[in-house]
Structure formats: C-alpha cells, structure tokens
Design brief:
It catalyses: O-phospho-L-threonyl-[protein] + H2O = L-threonyl-[protein] + phosphate. It is an enzyme of class 3 (hydrolase). One of its GO terms (molecular function) is protein serine/threonine phosphatase activity. This is protein-serine/threonine phosphatase. The chain is of the alpha+beta class and 344 residues long. 25% of the residues lie in helices and 28% in strands. A hairpin with a 4-residue loop joins β6 and β7. α1 packs across α3, α6 crosses α7 and α6 crosses α8. 48% of the residues are buried.
Length: 344
Amino acid sequence: MGQTLSEPITTKESSEGGDARVKYGASSMQGWRINMEDAHTTIPEYKNTGASFFAVFDGHGGSAVAKYSGAHLHDIVFDSEFYQQGDYREALRSSFLGIDVALRKDPSYENETSGCTAVAALLTKDNVLYVSNAGDSRAIISTNGRGIALSQDHKPVNEKETARIEKAGGHVEFGRVNGNLALSRALGDFEFKQSKDLPAEEQAVTAEPDITEHRLIAQDEFAVIACDGIWDCMTNQQVADFIRSKIKEKVDLKTICENLMDECLADHSDFGGVGCDNMTVIIVAFLQGKSLEEWYKAVGDKVPEPTGVVLKEDGEPELKKPRPSDETGEEKKTTTTISSDSNA
C-alpha cells in the first residue's frame, strides 16, 4: 500500500493549455504518500506535426523512471522511423520498449530499481486517437456522456498476464508478481526482467503496451488520462459524470482536475489504501471546430439537472465521497508536468 503521512499534502501542481483543436487541464497531488512518484506529459501540438500527446506515469519504488519517461517518451515516439512512416501503433509500441533500452544504456541508471506505469494518448493530425498502455493507469473517453475505457489494466491475476509471468519463471502470489509488484507491465522494474533467453515482450514484467485505436466522432467530448489513485476511487462513469457536471457549471479544466482529486482524497489514512495514493489526472477537451466557450455549452447542455441529490441545511447539494471502483478498464470501446508548454 505504501507508507503514508500523518496529514496529506494537498498542494497541487496544475497546468492548462491547448490550441484550436484541443484544450487540456492537468493536475497532480502527493496526497497521503511519503513521496510524489508520478510524472505526466501534456503536449497540445508536438513541433508543428499537428499531433497531440498526453501521458501519465505512475512511479513505484521511487520516481526516477517515471520522471525519465515523462521527459523522453514523447521524443522517442515522434523521432521513430515508424512514426515518420505513419505506423503509429508500432511507433508507440517500440517507444515503450525503447524506454527500457535507453535506461539500460544510461550509466546513471545502472542500479535503478524503480519502475512506472505508462498510459499515453497520441492524437494524430487526422483525429485518430491511439492509446498505449502498460500497467494500471487508465484512459477513458466521454462519448455523449458515456465513460468508455480506452485501455485495459494489466494485473498479475489476469489470465494472459499470469501465463506470461509463469512462463518467464515467475509466479503470482497475493495478486502480485513474485508476491511483490501489483501490476504486470511497467517501464523499468528490471529485477523482473532478468530472463536472458527471453525477449522483452516475454519477460515476467514487460514494457510492451496494449494499444487501442479510436477515430474521433462528433459525439466524443473529452478524454481523461489518470493514474490508479483516481480509478481506485471512482468508476469510469463516475469520473465522466463528475467532469461533465463541472463543465455544466463552467469550471475550467485545470480546476476540474483539482476538484476530482479532492473528491477522491481519503479522509484518513488508517488503511493506507483507497484515496491515499499519489494522484495525477489530465482532461483533454476535443473542440471539433468549436471555440472553448461553444464546447462548454455543447457539453453542458447535454448534462441533465441533478435528481435525488441530498441537500445540506443551507440548501446546497451535498457531494458524497465516491465508492471504490471494481472496474479494470476492460470495457469495450465502440468502433513532472512535461509539455511543449514543459516541465517534469
């Protein structure tokens, strides 16, 4: 679960930006954890390519690999020969694996033991959204208000993951790889990548991502990319509903991210679990030819007025803490701040 502080650190590092195609808000918060190990990337347009790139990296065992990935993954993707050839899937796949290669070659990371999840969203100039994921951070898209998973969480107990772990000589105990790591794919974590006779894709823990592809449609409103500090507390639909309710109230995207983290933050750390993790969230608005003001109105007008809301004595609605989620990001889809603005 990780060690916790006596009081949470609720100071937030937030940013916002965008262009005529997308607007984003992003925020991260240390919360109850002893250290902040997350990193994230926000690039509305990468070097005049017409493409956008957003990613979240949830570190464990330290922040070094997460920070390295946040600083370098996007450059590796866009500089790859596969990206230049228009093979965006292979550009993402090879770049996730390439982070491990780069770390192993860098003498300053020779004894590095940390690792991180990685979930990255690449929006091409042709409005095709590719989501590449390794680990249990997650991306969703809100389509006409429906929160749809664009990634699948990688847990050691998943049948496919267990089979690979055992084939590589590892085992799953207490839902963890070798009784230790609670996710089955990650960047770094080299202690779980020691089988010299196996390729990187077949190691007990692999950086190889699963990749989904989604061509934007008119009904797509926004994407959410976040670490499990959010998804352990709220379901995909709860997150979509929360964000849409704030859009209806005309709250800016950066502040919505902050509000969402506050909503997920546990009242106490007695168990060190749900609501006690580092939290990072990015909201990406798909403007689709609208101004930001027009986008807010278009989304907000579709949000129903709240019903059955418990009112406080002053008549204001009382927000309830979210219930823990049992979602794994396995819903089927229908068809540290780094940025070009940048800082890690």
